[in-house]
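Thread title: Can someone regenerate the structure for this chain?

I was given the following input by a collaborator and told the matching structure tokens would be attached. They weren't. Posting the sequence so someone can regenerate them.
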Amino acid sequence: MFCCRSRGTRRQTWKQNEDDLVWDVNRHIGARIGFRYGSQAFTHVIDFATDDMDYIPINQDTALFGIWARPVKNLRLNFDLEQTSNDNVIVRIGPRKEGRYRIQANYNPKAWAVVGGSINLLQQSNGDSLVDYKGHSRNYGLTASLAPKQRFGFEFAYNYSDYQQNAFICFNDTPPTGVTLPVVTNAGDCTQNVNPNNPYDDPANPLLTNGYYTNKTNYGQGTIRIQPLPRMTTQVGYSITSVSGTTPNFNVLQSLGSLAYNYHQPLANLAVDLGHGLTWNAGWNYAQYGEKSFAGPTDARYFHANNATFSVRWAF
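Best answer:
Regenerated them for you:
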């Protein structure tokens, strides 16, 4: 006779139902309204033998609204809104309230020109006094593709994103002798046995702080295509990603790492049409990663690489 025991089994179910009313007023404007209901359940079986488990049900209500407009033939605008309310959360940074806002625009002033823009915003919060979670994700983008001449074209893109989350957390940290960490020095109390009026009760993690995380990213890219001869096409481009962010420093050796860096990527390509379906290609691209700061005993991490590619393509 033998038996089997499973520990730590997790199961999650998520059901959603959405109803929408869509109305296209005319060829210039339209709108929609809707409602989405969601039912989510998270089950964590800790021990089958003792029926010890966590069960978290969540009901979600979401109001939906959208509108589109085409004021002129070559311009289209879209706006969408979602407002969600959750009656429970699974993790500390799970939101009780959530709002999404999306704006998109596409404009074609000429047959050879396409310009687009987008805004995507997400706001989240959980006002529970033990958590006080606030978070957001904001993204703004702009693109342009221009080809005024058959032998010349230009593409450009820019994107900015701003991400943040924060919540009260309890932690345990003892810096080495002679080392001072502000997050430890300024920490609050997470133990009820010290302060009876304190709502927290975590003696194993006696320190309280705001566990914030921020990340701001700028991305830019540009490419120029030139055809100096009928059978020759060249392309030159450059892109950069620049990131800056912050988070509490819980360790004297902890660095910002990928929260503060620049990443450069220039490139160049040459394609020659040899006739009979053959095309000779040569390409070069360079990558350079460099961190902006480091809080430890070594230099910030840095690397770069040169890559060259040669190929012949046969199309038939």
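The chain has one helix and 16 strands.
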